[in-house]
Amino acid sequence: MVDDNGNGLTLKLLIDRLPVQKRKMIFALLASAAFLFVVACLAGGVAYVGKSFLPISRIDVTEILNMERADILARAGIENQTYWMINKTRVKTNLLAIAAIKGAVVEKRFPDTLLITLDARKPAAMVLSFAGGVGVLQYVDETGKVFEKGKNVPPNMRLPIITDSNMQNPYAGAQFHSSVTDLLKTMSGISPALLSHISEIEINWKITGEYRLDLFDLIVYPRSSSIRVRMNAELDDAYISRMLLAVKTVERDYNTDEIDYRADDPVFIPKGGSR
Asked: What is the mean pLDDT of residues 70-85?
């Protein structure tokens, strides 16, 4: 549409040429549309921000050994909390109070997401405890922390059992003495294939109440033999390999009860013999 001079008509000129009543109606419609647009924008913004005042709708959490997601969240203390209510430091403190958790990172992402990354303790051995007269196996990591019942031990995880008369009925969260921790750290560096040949390592204290690495030795029980072996606490792959070879040489000799391998050469002790 063009004007008398052949120029295109603008929307404003078109509206100006309309009767007064129609112009008022158009302006009213435009004003209503603008108002509705503003209201819609505000409602969307309020709804977006308002989500942060509702309970968290998304929680991403790494799972750890023998613990269900629901149990982790309950122990973290974040049930029915809104985005603004959640205190990351408090949540992390609650998580680190769980014996099976070594480290935790807690992140909030606006408006309704919580990210929990957990560093689970890794088993270096198992320890035997008793509950109601029933033996229960629990995991212990290389720091000496007893952290979880071993109710679901993977079939390929053939960890040795640590027994210590000074660690009576260890519970989740119990801590072995630092000298035993040194032993566990040493064990963490030993080939898993070699450790799989050992069923139990008994810590034999030489002097009651004295907890030094040089004041205990080990009584080791190979899986394939009833012969026990006394060894020094400074274990390594070569030492264990020599011990297993010594056991193999006499495993069919049913008269041998024990091997003392605390010196360079093993001493084979017959049943009923002196130690």
From this structure: 84
